[in-house]
Input
Amino acid sequence: FTQLYTASDGTKLDWAVIQLDRAVDSSHVPLSVATASYSLNNGAALTMIGYPSGLPAKVASSVVTAQQTWGFYTVTDAFGGNSGSAIMDSSNTVVGILVRGNTDYAVNG
Output
């Protein structure tokens, strides 16, 4: 990539936006990202996917459990290393980013 965009105040983030330095093969289609006007209802189906702590892909399903002005809550099977993972709705539109998870596995070796 050629550019990494971060918070202007220098805080650590669980996510990043990058700009690629070359075209992407047309067989790789990016996910749609919801805009600020997008809304979810309580009970809406969600899927989280990420690669926590370098582990293989972790995919977990959940539903919206509560709404806030800044976003929504869900209860999903996520690890601490899943922070920054995409949260998608039933049409695979990215509607959020996971910001918390629990480390409930042991690293051996």
About this structure: Strands lie at 3-5, 17-19, 45-50, 58-68, 71-74, 86-88, 94-97. The mean pLDDT is 81. Residues 64 and 74 are 5 Å apart (CA to CA). The longest strand covers residues 58-68.
